[in-house]
Amino acid sequence: MKTTPANVQAEAVPSIPLRDADKLHSRELRKAIAEYIEQQREAVKALRRKLN
């Protein structure tokens, strides 16, 4: 297949939303992990208070 600017653009354009979706997914995943860690910290604090 001959590479022309139109072919390159056609191949590049569909990959852009995928990269954006990956970034969005990564951002959501990081947020969920941060929330989970915060919940675990609160649980540890509560357990420490209960044990002392």
Can you characterise this structure?
This protein has 52 residues and is mostly helical. It is built from 1 helix and no strands. The N and C termini lie far apart (73 Å).
Q: Which keywords apply here?
A:
mainly alpha; 52 residues; single chain; 1 helix
Name the beta content range.
under 5%
Determine the number of helices (DSSP H or I, runs of at least 4 residues): 1
Let me know the average pLDDT. Answer: 77
- Low-confidence spans: none
Computed structural class:
mainly alpha
> What is the H/E string?
H
The share of residues in helices is over 70%
| Total beta-strand segments | 0
Q: Describe the global form.
A: rod-shaped
Indicate the radius of gyration in whole angstroms.
23 Å
Our measurement of the CA-to-CA distance between the termini, rounded to an integer number of angstroms, reads 73 Å
In short:
The chain has 52 residues and is an all-alpha fold. The protein has one helix at 5-51. The chain has 1 helix and no strands.
Secondary-structure blueprint:
Blueprint: H1 5-51
